[in-house]
Structure formats: C-alpha cells, structure tokens
C-alpha cells in the first residue's frame, strides 16, 4: 500500500498559521501579535505604525530640538527685554508646538484605514469563483482580476489583491512598505512613519499646515531677535556671538519652509478637488483618459470637499487589534509577506517540490495534483535523491497528461516487460492521471519522472 500526501502548486498564495499554533495562542495572544502586515504595535496594540520608522524619529528630534532651542534662547530674550508683552511669543509658540506634535502623533500612531485580509474560507471561495482552467499550464501568469461597479454613472474598477485575497474597495490600494490594503490610500509617508489613508489623512493635512505656520513663526521671531540685538550692540557679528543658536534655528526653518509650503499647497489642491495623491499621480479621474471622465467621489465644490476632509465624521477602524485570536477568524498570511514569490526561480514558481510542507490550499482540486511523500510496505528499488525531484504540475494535470513513453515503472511492477518506449496499461491504471488502482481499493501514485529507454519498462 502507498500513502500519498498532496501539496498545492507553489504560487504567490499566502500560507496561514498552523492549527496547533492558533490553539496554543487562542487564550493568551491578541490579534495584533499575529497581524500579517509589516507593522509594529505598542501599548498592547493601541499604537500602530510602520516598522521602518527611522525617519519618523528624525522628524520628532528635528521638531522638538528646534523648538527647545527657540524657547531657551529667543523666547527668553523677549520675556526679559519686553516683560509687558514678551510672554505672547512663548505662549503662541507653545500652542503651535503642542498642536503640531498632537497631529503628528495622531497621524503616526493610528490605523490609516487598513482593510482586514480574507480568512482562509473567504479566500478559498474567491479563488473558486475566479479560477480559470488555463492556470494549470506551465509559465502561466493569470490576467488582472478586476470587477467593475458604477458610482454616479462613472465606471470604477475594483482590483483583486493577490496578497490580501480581497477585491479592494474603490480608492483603496496596497502599500508595498506596510504590506496592507488601505482605504482611500494617499501615500506612505516615511516622515510620519505610517501610511496616509482614510482615517488619518485629516491629521496629516493639519500637521503639514500647522508645521508650516510654526516654521514661519519661528523664522520671523528669530530674525526679529537678531535685528533687535544688532540695533542694541551696533554690530551683527556681536549679535550672533551673543545668540549663536538663533542662526541655526533660522537656517533650519528657512530650508524647511519651502518644502512645507509646497507640500501644503499641493495637498490643499488635492483636498479642494476631492482627490488623493495616488489618484492624482495615476490620473484616475483625468479627462485625458476619456472626455467624459470625472471624479464620482467629489462633493461638487471646493468648500464641500474641504469640509468632508476636515470636518467630516471619523471612520471606525476595521481592525480588532486588541481582540483575542480565534482560529476561524485567522486571516490568510505569508511567512514573509509579498517576498516568497519574487525570491523563487521560474522553475520553483510553476513546480512542486516534494519537501514543501503542506498547508491549507485555496486552489481548486484540479490544480492540487502533486505527489509529495511516499511509503511502501515492500522493499523497493533505491532511487537516487527521490525526495529532491521537482514535478511540473502540468505533467500531473489531467488536462495535459505525460506521454506514455515517459512514464516510469510503478512500484511493485518493475519487472513488467514491454517494447522499448511503450508500456502495457495495467488493470486499474489511469494513464491520464498516472494513478494505479490496486485490488484492495488503495491507490498507487507514480513516484518519479525520468526518461524511459529500452529496458526501463
């Protein structure tokens, strides 16, 4: 008797956690601990941001450091020199500073609108709906999976995400840095260490606008400080010697203002037109694609679009980050998201290695034909490296069977004689699938593939 174990074709299909791991963690682990995206969490899942957050820390140091120097040197000068109204300078700067940090942290530490990945059952159902027979052929690359919906008379395409196994809603896109699909995806901003999407775009816009005002305010106060000191001392160099840090603050703010004003102006345009950065770059609603093309998500006026972004309701998060892990709700995930397929050779992408561990499949049964491990009661012939061969799935598919003159002998029937290159069909054998039905009802699978010559059959 032969025991066969099957494994799916190695494609970009993500794997999932084993049942044993889920059972062990079901009473203690929370969902943020097994989150499949490339994010990191703090405070028991309350804070969510990208793993690559080095530039975000640099942003915090730059803002906090510049403001501290401003409070220590420039604000103290105005308070000591003009006690009647000098307190207004640190008061206004302090309010702006608090507002900038609050909007920055809200943008960086919140869920930008991540769409949960499908569960294994949902992914399997979607795969069955969009499965095409030609996907079993070697070197086959499936066409883009797209669905179309009509919104305000405008056709909008819903693209299928191969990583999350979902049809993305309108305006959503997959972030390659965080490896998540995000609602109303704008862009991934390394300066804030997070994606900018539906749930945090408002705070991102307020952050860049308030930071622009803060830079202008500090720059104006520092220049005024240097001018007043120059008038008191009579020489500009003496004023710099008395307050050398002021020139550093002025240079930082001067070079930051230009980029901040440009960025703020661009996002003001996007907000007024009801677009995102991703849509504007791709020209999703540009009239160049079609004369009757328009933005179905616009409110019809600049004021309406601005009110929707700044004053609209706050959308709830779709992620239950602090909930406990439930086996039935475990999303499809990969051990290394989005990297497994690209790190494989073309031969590995379209073939099955017998050493590949079996996992829950989301592919139809006609694409799951691949022999993996075999055991037999009778002493068998020693095949060299029989656990290392790679079987092309097209050779095992019933739609593209292997020619008869390339079929190796079946275990237990090595002595069968036949003319060179031709083997007589045995009782119970299905030549198309390479399976042999024994008299006791068990099935023996063809174990290996090699060129068959005279004397081999």
Provide the descriptors you would attach to this structure in a database record.
457 residues, 3 domains, three-stranded antiparallel β-sheet, 15 strands, membrane
**Main sheet attributes: strand count, strand direction, barrel closure:** 3 strands, antiparallel
Per the principal axes of the C-alpha atoms, what is the gross shape?
elongated
Determine the mean pLDDT.
74
- Helix-strand pattern: HEEHHEHEEEEEEEHHHHHHEEHEEE
Total domains: 3
Structural class: alpha+beta
Number of strands: 15
Helical content band: 25-40%
Low-confidence stretches: 1-15, 334-424, 445-457
Termini, distance in Å?
A: 21 Å
Task: Report strand %.
Answer: 5-15%
What is Rg? 32 Å
How many individual helices?
11
Neighbour order of strands in the largest sheet: 3-8-7
């Amino acid at each position: 008797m032969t025991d066969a174990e099957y494994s799916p074709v190695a494609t970009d299909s993500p794997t999932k956690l084993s049942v044993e791991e889920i059972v062990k963690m079901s009473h203690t682990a929370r969902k943020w601990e097994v989150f499949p995206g490339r994010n990191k969490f703090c405070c028991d899942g309350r804070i969510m941001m990208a793993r690559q957050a080095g530039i975000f820390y640099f942003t915090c140091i730059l803002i906090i450091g510049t403001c501290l120097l401003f409070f220590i040197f420039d604000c103290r000068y105005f308070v000591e020199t003009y006690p009647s109204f000098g307190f207004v300078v640190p008061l206004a700067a302090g309010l702006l500073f608090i507002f900038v940090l609050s909007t920055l942290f809200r943008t960086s530490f919140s869920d930008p609108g991540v769409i949960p990945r499908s569960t294994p059952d949902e992914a399997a159902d979607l795969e069955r709906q969009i499965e095409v027979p030609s996907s079993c052929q070697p070197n086959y690359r499936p066409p883009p999976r797209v669905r179309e919906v009509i919104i305000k008379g405008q056709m909008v395409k819903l693209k299928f995400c191969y990583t999350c196994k979902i049809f993305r809603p309108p305006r959503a896109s997959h972030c390659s840095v965080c490896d998540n699909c995000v609602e109303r995806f704008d862009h991934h901003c390394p300066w804030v260490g997070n994606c900018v999407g539906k749930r945090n775009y408002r705070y991102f816009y307020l952050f860049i606008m308030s930071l622009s005002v803060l830079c202008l305010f500090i720059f104006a106060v520092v220049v005024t400080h240097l001018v007043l000191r120059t008038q008191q001392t009579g020489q500009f160099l003496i004023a710099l010697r008395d307050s050398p840090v002021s020139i550093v603050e002025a240079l930082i703010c001067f070079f930051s203002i230009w980029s901040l004003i440009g960025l703020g102006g661009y996002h003001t345009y996007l907000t007024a037109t009801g677009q995102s950065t991703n849509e504007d770059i791709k020209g999703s609603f540009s009239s160049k694609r079609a004369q009757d093309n328009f933005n179905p998500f616009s409110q019809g006026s600049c004021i309406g679009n601005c009110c929707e972004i700044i004053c609209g309701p706050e959308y709830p998060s779709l992620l239950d980050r602090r909930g406990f892990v439930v086996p039935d709700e475990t999303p499809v995930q990969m051990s290394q998201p989005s990297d497994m397929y690209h790190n494989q050779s073309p031969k590995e992408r379209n073939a099955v290695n017998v050493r590949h561990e079996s996992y829950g499949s989301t592919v139809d049964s006609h694409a799951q034909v691949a022999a993996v491990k075999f055991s037999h009661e009778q002493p068998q012939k020693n095949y060299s490296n029989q656990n290392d061969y790679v079987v092309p799935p097209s050779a095992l598919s019933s739609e593209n069977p292997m020619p008869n003159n390339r079929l190796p002998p079946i275990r237990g029937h090595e002595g069968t004689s036949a003319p060179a290159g031709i083997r007589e069909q045995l009782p119970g054998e299905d030549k198309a699938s390479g399976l042999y039905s024994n008299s006791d009802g068990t099935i023996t699978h063809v174990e290996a593939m090699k060129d068959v010559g005279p004397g081999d059959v």
